[in-house]
């Protein structure tokens, strides 16, 4: 028979051990509750108040006179807490919200499903209009809506309408800011760190802020908003008149390189960038700095610069033009398929003779290699084929063949002498022309004038040619406008000095392996001023067919010369450039674009 297993002593020992253990636990609990209570309550509060990332207010972008071009505005984000609603309330609140937000049936059904599930938290809409926010607040006041929260959210806002419908001013130049605060394209992308400042994590508990956000400095541009608006209107008028896929223009101070106006039409509404991203994302790309093209005969001025510097011609040297220039199996012809015979070199350029210009280019050296080296050197000095250093991303360098790496044939030299076989950006052209008219110094184009109260130091450009050569080139450009066929009527401005050169360049179709039929890039680059050149202006009408028959051939509804003149008149008005002494200010030039408010004139800087 087995013995008993219970024991009075064992039970007493077990009870004593449990009493001691319970007493130890009680003491430990009392220690945490009483001795460490304050510290534990603080830690619990810290855990409930999660640190949140506080974005600084993005700095403003303003023009040269302080006109705000980009700023920060606020719209409400609508959040909901469906689990706090009674079950029967949920679909009712969801339907009312659907009416406030104007939801489509499928969107409304999805919102009702979310509410009926009783989710603890959901974002109903990220950006309400002011009217929608007011309706939600009214609903919360009269209890028709409940379990909702409006949270102000910063967004980038571009307050100025552009010069064409449904656009904001300088859209491609400024770029835009996405919902996560990242700048995209233009100045917004280039100046992201500066404009966004430094964000800091900030706790929600009084003095326990972990870091305070720092603000960036407002960025003041060289741009003049009034001139910018007028430029966009003029480009829009040409875009409509010529039925062009795109029209581009810029105005530059030839001495400092400051950009006074810069635009391409069509632009877009930077406040609604998401719509553009879905329908026409190609509009985000800025052709002035990111797109290269063969500019055509505007490059004849660069060839003239090389020829005059080398001394192979003067402006009055007779040059023999011809109907055709044969170079082995290749032939070069003038645009009008005619010859003007023997004429002074200045008329060869003014009448835009491919054959005559090509013949002069062949004399730049004793051999084709030497002549190519001379022309290429002039390109390089004028910034053709290399970045300008403008404060924008994605600047194209161009396509320029280095004859020391890829020797030019004589046909290459002749073609490149009149702007075929070389691809540049409009900004490179305007910068190079600035050096040719300002005394020979290549400016560094720039857009940012100051950050906060500190002016940005302007880089001094290099002297790339003698001032005497620059003076000859100014004289040549004035002669081109005065003596070129039909140029004077379309380009000259009474009381002011105008000079420049057109380019009507054929376009090579890579897919077809042939020149596009009757389709050209139409460019004019030149200057306007009185006692001196005050502004260099470039306009380009992209990939367009001339459709108007005149006595000398086919032309556009609005030629590049005429578009240049209109922009020049706007520039004279905004910069308040006085006419030559003893002359009268020209009458306002008629415009196709609808009238728009014009900002105050910029103070003229001598």
What descriptors fit this protein?
606 residues; alpha+beta; Penicillin-binding protein 2a (Domain 2); Beta-lactamase; 5-stranded antiparallel β-sheet; 20 helices; 24 strands; 21% strand
Provide a compact summary of the structure.
The protein has 20 helices and 24 strands.
List the helices and strands and how they pair.
Blueprint: H1 8-35, H2 37-48, E1 52-54, E2 61-62, E3 68-80, H3 90-101, H4 105-117, E4 122-125, H5 130-141, E5 148-157, H6 171-174, E6 176-177, E7 183-184, H7 186-190, H8 192-196, E8 200-202, E9 219-221, H9 225-242, E10 247-252, E11 259-265, H10 273-279, H11 287-290, H12 300-310, E12 318-320, E13 324-327, E14 330-333, E15 342-344, H13 345-350, H14 354-362, H15 368-381, H16 410-417, H17 426-437, E16 441-442, E17 448-451, E18 454-455, E19 462-463, H18 467-483, H19 487-491, E20 497-509, E21 514-529, E22 533-544, E23 548-550, E24 553-555, H20 560-575
Report on this model:
- This protein has 606 residues and is of the alpha+beta class.
- It is built from 20 helices and 24 strands.
- The protein folds into 2 domains: 77 residues, Penicillin-binding protein 2a (Domain 2); 351 residues, Beta-lactamase (3-Layer(aba) Sandwich), CATH 3.40.710.10.
- A hairpin with a 3-residue loop joins strand 21 and strand 22.
- Helix 12 crosses helix 15 and helix 12 packs across helix 18.
- It is elongated.
């Amino acid at each position: 028979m087995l013995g008993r297993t219970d024991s009075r002593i064992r039970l007493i020992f077990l009870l004593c051990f449990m009493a001691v253990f319970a007493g130890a636990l009680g003491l430990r609990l009392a220690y945490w509750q009483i001795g460490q209570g304050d510290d534990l309550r603080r830690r619990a509060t810290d855990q409930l108040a999660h640190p949140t990332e506080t974005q600084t207010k993005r700095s403003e972008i303003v023009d040269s006179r302080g006109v705000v071009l980009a700023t920060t505005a606020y719209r409400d984000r609508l959040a909901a807490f469906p689990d706090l609603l009674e079950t029967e309330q949920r679909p009712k609140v969801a339907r009312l919200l659907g009416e406030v937000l104007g939801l489509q049936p499928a969107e409304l059904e999805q919102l009702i499903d979310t509410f009926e599930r009783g989710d603890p938290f959901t974002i109903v809409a990220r950006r309400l209009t002011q009217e929608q926010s007011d309706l939600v607040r009214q609903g919360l006041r009269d209890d028709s809506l409940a379990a909702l929260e409006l949270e102000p959210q910063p967004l980038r806002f571009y307050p100025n309408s552009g010069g064409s419908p449904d656009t904001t001013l300088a859209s491609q130049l400024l770029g835009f800011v996405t919902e996560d605060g990242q700048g995209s394209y233009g100045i917004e992308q280039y100046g992201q760190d500066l404009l966004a400042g430094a964000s800091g994590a900030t706790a929600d508990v009084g003095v326990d802020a972990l870091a305070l956000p720092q603000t960036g400095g407002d960025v003041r541009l060289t741009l003049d908003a009034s001139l910018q608006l007028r430029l966009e209107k003029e480009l829009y008028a040409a875009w409509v008149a010529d039925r062009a896929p795109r029209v581009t223009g810029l105005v530059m101070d030839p001495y400092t390189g400051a950009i006074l106006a810069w635009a391409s039409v069509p632009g877009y509404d930077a406040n609604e960038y998401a719509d553009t991203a879905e329908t026409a994302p190609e509009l985000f790309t800025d052709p002035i700095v990111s797109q290269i093209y063969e500019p055509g005969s505007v490059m004849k001025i660069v060839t003239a610069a090389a020829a005059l510097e080398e001394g192979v011609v003067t402006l009055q040297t007779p040059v023999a033009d011809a109907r055709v220039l044969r170079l082995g199996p290749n032939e070069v012809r003038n645009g009008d398929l005619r010859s003007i015979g023997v004429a002074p070199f200045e008329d060869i350029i003014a009448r835009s003779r491919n054959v005559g210009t090509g013949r002069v280019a062949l004399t730049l050296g004793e051999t084709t290699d030497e002549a190519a080296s001379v022309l290429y050197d002039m390109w390089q000095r004028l910034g053709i084929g290399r970045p300008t250093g403008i404060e924008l991303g994605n600047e194209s360098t161009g396509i320029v063949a280095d004859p020391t790496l890829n020797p030019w044939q004589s046909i290459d030299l002749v073609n490149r002498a009149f702007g075929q076989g070389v691809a540049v950006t409009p900004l490179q052209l305007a910068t190079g022309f600035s050096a040719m008219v300002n005394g020979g110094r290549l400016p560094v184009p720039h857009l940012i004038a100051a950050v906060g109260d500190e002016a940005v130091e302007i880089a001094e450009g290099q002297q790339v040619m003698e001032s005497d050569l620059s003076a000859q080139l100014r004289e040549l450009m004035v002669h081109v406008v005065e003596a070129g066929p039909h140029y004077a009527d379309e380009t000259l401005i009474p009381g002011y000095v105008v000079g420049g050169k057109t380019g009507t360049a054929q376009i090579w179709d890579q897919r077809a392996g042939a020149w596009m039929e009757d389709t050209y890039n139409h460019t004019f680059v030149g200057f306007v001023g009185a006692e001196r050149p005050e502004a260099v202006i470039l306009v380009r009408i992209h990939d367009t067919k001339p459709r108007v028959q005149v006595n000398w051939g086919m032309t556009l509804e609005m030629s590049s010369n005429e578009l240049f003149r209109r922009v020049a008149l706007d520039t004279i008005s905004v910069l308040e450039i006085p006419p030559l002494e003893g002359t009268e200010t020209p009458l306002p030039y008629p415009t196709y674009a609808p009238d728009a408010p014009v900002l105050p004139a910029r103070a003229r800087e001598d």
